[in-house]
Write a structure and sequence with these properties.
six-stranded mixed β-sheet, alpha/beta, 13 strands, 2 domains, four-stranded antiparallel β-sheet, Alpha-Beta Plaits, Rossmann fold
Length: 302
């Protein structure tokens, strides 16, 4: 794997609090690398250190072979950045912003093409102040890609986007990667990370507590399956004797059966044997959100 980001022992403190606490990881060229974690877990601080926007207190960082602290000017020629908190002059028009950013890039992409890709063509003459939250977000992503970067950082890329726009953005990120750009994606949407990312780092209290492919994380940390169906019959305690079943719960008129293995097939066969054929029988397979809750716990943000 050709490494585009190498981090060894990165630490960042504010006062007596370690926001990022001795983390190490690598990102490969052409990879979509996900960073997930609750608010305050150290995600954004880490990404800002990688871009030279914050100075690390300890550790070694190389991004595209460059030190973000001492070679930031050169580094910014090769990376794109969509930050969690961004703004533009209120009266600037969309096309003006894209052309303005393109004027600083030596290998700028076609502004018209970028605006078409990110659904901004109809808003090209709109002022920044008149854009919706989702439209602003799409504009910031377009600006992050205007210099045709080798590596792009996307921090909460789809925050504020409706479901249709979010899926469109996912397709465009895949196209960005297929064109040769490596991606670091910071997100709180577990489905987004699971669908897009080749590998995911789970941050908790300033540390990386898990790092692997989404599939491997799910297999390791979230093996339980839930089978759900509606049933008028209340006493289904006999389901606990079915192979793979660990728990049976009633939720109003619904039944939840938890367990592992080929649970759906086992439960379906047992129900048929007892003359029960629920039309809505279904299985909920574990996903990355289950992994996240398993690793970090179910407590609310502090």
């Amino acid at each position: 794997m050709e490494v585009v980001i190498a981090v060894d022992g990165l630490a960042k403190r504010y006062g007596g609090t370690a926001v990022v606490d001795d983390i190490s990881f690598e990102v490969g060229r052409g990879e979509i690398f996900g960073v997930i974690g609750r608010n305050g877990a150290g995600k954004t601080t880490t990404v800002e250190c990688l871009q030279g926007l914050r100075r690390a207190d300890a550790g070694r960082i190389r991004v595209l072979g460059l030190d973000p602290m001492t070679e930031a000017t050169e580094l910014r020629k090769h990376i794109g950045s969509q930050l969690q908190e961004s703004s533009l002059p209120q009266r600037i028009k969309v096309w003006e912003a894209v052309r303005w950013f393109a004027s600083f890039a030596s290998n700028a992409r076609d502004p018209e093409q970028l605006m078409r890709q990110w659904g901004l063509e109809d808003k090209k003459n709109a002022h920044f102040s008149d854009l919706s939250g989702g439209q602003r977000q799409r504009l910031f992503i377009a600006l992050a890609l205007v210099n045709d970067p080798e590596l792009v950082f996307l921090d909460e890329m789809t925050a504020g986007l409706d479901p249709a726009a979010r899926h469109t953005a996912w397709d465009l990120v895949r196209e960005v990667r297929e064109a040769g750009t490596s991606v670091v994606l910071v997100t709180q949407y577990m489905e987004e990370a699971e669908r897009l990312c080749d590998r995911v780092a789970v941050f908790e209290r300033g540390k990386i507590v898990a790092l692997d492919t989404p599939g491997a994380l799910i297999a390791r940390h979230a093996q339980e399956i839930t089978v759900r169906f509606s049933a008028a019959q209340r006493d289904l305690s006999w389901l606990t004797s079915v192979a793979g079943v660990s728990q049976v719960n009633h939720r109003n008129s619904f039944v939840e059966v938890r367990g592992s293995g080929p649970l759906l097939a086992e439960v379906a066969a047992a129900l048929v044997q007892h003359g029960i054929r629920p039309p809505d029988l279904r299985a909920d397979l574990p996903d990355l959100e289950d992994v996240f809750l398993s690793i970090t716990g179910r407590r609310s943000d502090e």
